[in-house]
Design brief:
mainly alpha; MetI-like fold
């Protein structure tokens, strides 16, 4: 028979529960506070930059030479290099990661899954600088043997290695989303005569689209924010191009280049890193909003 708690014990229990609630609230609010602080710093420093450089020039000029004697502040070369390297990376990581997820979820035995999935996830633990040197010293020479005249620094090799680096994120999260689909949907599809591949592609994958879309958004955000691979393998030449065989600079590589330099704090050249950082933040926000919109539209359709 359960003993009744005394009023003093009940007060202590309520006090502990309130303390736990406040601790959980503080943990949740800290992430919001950090995000607000990051946005505030970027906006404050960017306003100082745009006081010297018109916003129209920043968004439309095709030259980015803030460290030259005759500085130009057009962000398009950095933006183009970032999007181009991300596009190449997703061309590699998207199909391979999704294929691996479908295999692990729908076709692999439990023993194979227990071995392959942790091994695949080990790729996400490799330092990015190692990927960068792998791109420069292995992938680039291999591509030069296939593509004559390919420069030593190019977006293609950097994008391919970034795609390899992103595969574990897409494969693991997509596989988790597909494994969460109720088995009743699979059984119903198979009972109607569909093959396992048709069931995976037409039943399981659409049902897990929310999780798969989140995995792709995470992969895109990871590619957009990658620094060392593009800094080592793609070169740091701000070049507005859509040809992945050419060298280019990305937003993150430029931020590292300037942040480690000797520019005085508060100068226009130093404030460029906050302006391009704000662009990077807006890009990530756009990708996340697009993912939420796709998920909502897909749920309405199905």
């Amino acid at each position: 028979m359960a003993t009744r708690r005394t009023p003093q014990e009940l007060r202590k229990m309520r006090a502990r529960e309130r303390a736990i609630e406040w601790a959980l609230f503080a943990a949740a609010a800290s992430s919001v506070a950090v995000t607000i602080a990051i946005v505030a710093v970027l906006l404050y420093e960017s306003l100082g930059f745009f006081a010297h450089v018109p916003l129209g020039t920043f968004l439309t000029d095709t030259m980015w030479t803030p460290l030259f004697a005759d500085p130009r502040y057009g962000v398009l070369p950095l933006l183009g290099g970032t999007l181009l390297s991300t596009f190449v990376a997703m061309l590699v990581a998207g199909p391979l990661g999704l294929t691996a997820a479908i295999y692990l979820s729908e076709f692999a035995s439990s023993r194979v899954r227990e071995v392959v999935k942790p091994t695949l996830e080990l790729l996400s633990g490799v330092p990015t600088v190692v990927y960068g040197f792998f791109a420069l010293l292995f992938v680039t020479p291999a591509l030069q043997a296939i593509i004559p005249g390919l420069p030593g620094f190019n977006v293609l090799s950097a994008g391919i290695v970034m795609g390899i680096m992103i595969i574990p994120y897409i494969a693991s999260l997509s596989e988790d989303a597909m494994r969460a689909v109720p088995n009743g949907l699979r059984d119903g599809s198979l009972a109607l005569g569909a093959t396992r591949l048709e069931t995976a592609l037409r039943v399981v994958l659409p049902s897990a689209f929310s999780g798969v879309a989140s995995a792709f958004v995470l992969g895109i955000s990871r590619a957009v924010g990658e620094t060392m691979v593009v800094a080592i393998a793609a070169g740091q030449q701000p070049n507005l191009t859509i040809d992945p065989r050419e060298p280019a600079a990305t937003i993150t590589a430029y931020i590292v280049q300037v942040a480690l330099g000797d520019l005085p704090h508060g100068s226009v050249g130093y404030q460029t890193i906050f302006a391009v950082g704000l662009v990077l933040l807006l890009m990530t926000l756009f990708f996340n909003v697009a993912a939420f919109w796709l998920r909502a539209k897909f749920r309405e359709a199905y």
